[in-house]
Model the fold of this input.
Amino acid sequence: MNLMSKFFGNTRKPEGFLGKMMVNGMNGNSHAALAEWGFAFIDIVKTDAALDCGCGGGANVKRLLSKCDKAYGIDYSEVSVAKSKEVNAEAISKNRCEIHQCDVCNLPFGNDSFNVVTAFETVYFWQDMEKAFSEIYRVLRNGGVFAITNESTGTDETAVKFSKIIDGMSLYTGEDLKALLENAGFTDIEIHLHGSKPWLNVTAGKA
Done:
């Protein structure tokens, strides 16, 4: 495996020095623009409890903390968890934030724990989407929202190219995600596309 393949392979599960470079990049300006676009489709109030799945470098947990009283992050990468804790250290010290190392298919939270669950640039790497969506449905409260935001519509040329480089990466269209969400019990599913970029956002509710 060449250096480029190793580097982009860290997108799935950041590890070691290259993983640290990757999570620092996740907190950069290009991901910030995508995040702000994705957040525009979610109504969050101060009293909400929120969870960011696949929290990477922790930037989106911090964005959630600017909108609600308490936010949690989970990631199965030790490097990502360490960076997320560093970025959100102040909120953690004030008991407003928790970061957990775990798999999205086995969330360490009780039923009906969250009003909002987000997943930015991460579902490509979830190995069991049915189980993952079932877990998110379980921890989401009635009336809550689950929002997926991807930099790819699932068919754009750049993403297709990277899916061939990155081990374990799967692409999803809005319709693919809608079908999986419906199977998990979600309702009120909406697909949003960016006007000029191949960005995808899908929101789903729990009745």
Summary: The two ends are 47 Å apart (CA to CA). The domain at 3-205 is CATH 3.40.50.150 (Rossmann fold). Residues 16-26 form the longest helix (11 residues).
